[in-house]
Amino acid sequence: MTAKYQVYTKNAFAERREHAWLFSNAELLRTIMNYSYDTILVTDGNGKVIFVNPAAEKSLGLSADQLMNKNVRDLVKEGVYDRSMVLESLETRSIATGIVKTRTGITLLVTSIPILDESGRVKIVITNGREANIIEKYLLELEKERARVHRYKAAVDFLSEADFDRDAPVAESPQMRQIIDICNIIAKTDSTVLITGESGTGKEVIARYIHKNSPRASEPFIPVNCAAIPRDLLESEFFGYTKGAFTGANAHGKPGLFEIADKGTLFLDEIGELPLAMQSKLLRVLDTGEVQRLGGTTFTKINVRVIAATNRDLKKMVEEKAFRGDLYYRLNVLPIHLPPLRERPEDILPLARRFLQELNKKYGLKKRMSPQLEKLLLSYDWPGNARELRNVIERLVITSREEELHLDEGMLERRVPEEREKAGGSAGGVYEPSWPQGTLRDFLKEMERRYISQVLRECNGRIGEAARRLGIHRTMLYRKLRGYG
After folding, report:
1. Which domains are assigned to the chain?
2. Residue ranges of the alpha helices (H) in 96-173?
3. Overall pTM surpassing 0.70 (yes/no)
């Protein structure tokens, strides 16, 4: 047996040569302990050091020769470290864990485990420790990873509630083709975009197209209707909040929309509806790229591309002091204006066909447009733009029994141009549908049909939601719709 074996093993091992495998096992164990990144120190039942590994030598600032056979009580007195978990473990005959500071300036998280003999006396105490800053770094990374997971979960939860069309914009008209060309250039940048245009012109569709064709395409696209968030919730929704920030707050806190959209795109629709106080906070985030949760004391760096949209004249609002000028110019880096549908008639039928295709797939139908329907669609000025067009197509799909769809002019909210000319009305004259003729029963039935059609349009064709609003069972609603065919 070599000298090193005599240092680390009992004499009994040397006397029992028939158990040679113990030598190799002891050598293996010693090698493992010596190569451990954690500090390992073993003492006997009186607190005398009988083993120390190189990591412990480094942490305590003493060599193995200086530590061997020293009592841990003396090490504390000499200031090698400020406390000994070995002593606590010996006193309690149980596992002891605590923070220990060494004279080398290292802080360790130390655990001492007593090994008892058959009579319950402590034979040896095995102590291991790890640098606290390593643990803190690990916990910090773990918390960051947990935050990332939470952010993506929040994004999934947020997007799972959305009902949107991911297809590319319809661009048959020269105006829209030019806009798509511009979007393809804009998509490669990270600059903010301001999309303007009348309600229903497809501002979110364009925003999604920009995101889908950008380097951020694999990251979240978070659409937000600024007008739909109550004013007293704007800050917590945009920037999130910490636990206990206010009564009723989530016990774990909540990430804001900017955090959820990190590395992706945040689409702020109806940006003109934000109150001035919130505009100021939004401007700061755009300028600094940092957000602070409500109730928090630290700032979080975020990397978000902002695309804003509005149907209002922001420049005029700036003049009227209703919108911050600095925020307007911060948003209006890359402006895009969407023309109304009446100024790009080439897009009307392609849009109508796309809506019809989507609805046929949704309801398992094979409806098609008649020449009469196509002619009327082209002759109407569509004050509600693509949104109104979709509503009309959906209403026809739901209420028509025939596979070929025909349009009753009374379904449109304004007169078609030919009807205006016959009546001598102006181009903007509001269409007033004629009262139903016939018996009172016929009148009530027709008014019921019109009202149900209106509710279905407002519910985007969702039968269950429409039935709840009408106060009837969905089976009865289906029966009524079949009866209107």
Report:
1. 3-135 (3.30.450.20), 162-339 (3.40.50.300), 342-431 (1.10.8.60), 434-485 (1.10.10)
2. 132-160
3. no
